[in-house]
What does this fold into?
Amino acid sequence: AEQLQVSQYITWLGEINQEQALKEYQNCDAFVLPSLYESMGIVYIEALACGKPIIATKCGGPESTVTPFNGLLIEKENVTKLASALHYMIENRDKYDSNQIRQDFLARYSAGAVVPQLMALYKQVLEKHPGIS
It folds into this structure.
C-alpha cells in the first residue's frame, strides 16, 4: 500500500471477531474479495446478509453466490478488471439495492430457505434406502 501510495485509504484490521466483522460489513459500501481460490465462501453470504454488493473473482465458490444484481464477478489475477470493477461500483452504487440484496440472501440462505431443502433431501435419501434410520 505504501509503495502504491494508497496507504491513507486502507485500514489493515488483521483478525477480527464476529461482532467487529458485522460492524465492518455495516460500514462498508461494498465487499471486495479478489481471491485466487474460494469454495462456498461464508464471507460473501455475510456481506449479502448485510445488503452489501460484492466484487469477487471467478475462482470456484463466488459464481454460485454473486449475481448481476448483487455484484460483479471478474477473472482472477486480472488487476485491470479489478480496477474497472471498483470504479464501476463507485460510479454505479445506486444500481445495487441493499434491501433487494438482503431479500435475495433471505430467499437463498436463511434457515427458512435451507431447512426445507435439507428436509426434502433427507426424505428422498430415506425413501431410496428404507433400511437407513
Observations:
- The domain at 7-128 is CATH 3.40.50.2000 (Rossmann fold).
- The CA atoms of residues 39 and 61 lie 4 Å apart.
